[in-house]
Write a structure and sequence with these properties.
- Helix 4 (57-72) runs parallel beside helix 6.
- The longest helix is centred in the middle third of the chain and has 32 residues, at 82-113.
- The protein has 2 domains: 12-56, Arc Repressor Mutant, subunit A (Orthogonal Bundle); 73-186, Tetracycline Repressor, domain 2 (Orthogonal Bundle).
- 72% of the residues lie in helices and 0% in strands.
- It is mainly α and 188 residues long.
- It is built from 8 helices and no strands.
Length: 188
């Protein structure tokens, strides 16, 4: 979302303050009820400071959500048990969503109304996670944990379909569900 422009360098502390404030307010009050003016006032920065960095509230919240999710949800570590690695990775994501699920649903809604934002949301948030799972499944197949006839890309789509469906419908996403998804992918 953010692009470098000529001139004085941006203050990283201001960017961090805006992201932290936006994410906190959206978590506490809901995306739709938090205007940009509230984020600016709470962060104690100028309107220009925000608009020099992001064009819309959705872009700001996406950046904040992206930063927060990647500090709290690590990529699965290489390990001999790919089923366990997938379950742990999903459980970490689901734990993050216990706090941020409503914000993510709001970003998905914003993406439906703005094609540019939809592409940015997909490229920055959706595609990297799909790639992580697809790569893990390819590695599992190479290690013999997944039969050669199973399609890792299709299985990754199933994983994400189950996740997105439950998220969008407000259903439980927890350790048990993460394990069930992993078990479904890898079979008995």
């Amino acid at each position: 979302m953010t692009e470098k422009t000529p001139g004085r360098p941006r203050d990283a502390a201001v960017s961090r303050k805006l992201k932290d404030t936006a994410l906190r307010l959206v978590r506490d009050k809901g995306y739709d009820t938090v205007p940009i003016s509230a984020i600016i006032a709470e962060a104690g920065v100028s309107r220009q400071s925000l608009y020099n960095r992001w064009s819309t509230k959705a872009e700001l919240v996406l950046d904040a959500f992206y930063d927060d999710s990647f500090t709290r949800v690590a990529q699965p570590l290489p390990r001999p048990d790919h089923r366990g690695a997938l379950a742990t990775f999903l459980a970490d994501i689901f734990a993050h969503l216990a706090e941020n699920g409503a914000a993510l649903r709001s970003l998905i809604a914003a993406a439906q109304a703005d094609e540019t934002f939809r592409v940015a949301f997909h490229d920055r948030f959706v595609a990297p996670r799909e790639e992580i799972v697809t790569q893990l499944l390819h590695e599992a197949q190479a290690a013999g944990e997944l039969p050669p006839g199973r399609d890792p890309e299709l299985l990754s789509a199933f994983v994400h379909g189950a996740f997105w469906y439950r998220l969008l419908n407000g259903q439980t996403l927890d350790d048990t569900w993460a394990r069930r998804i992993a078990d479904g992918v890898f079979g008995p």
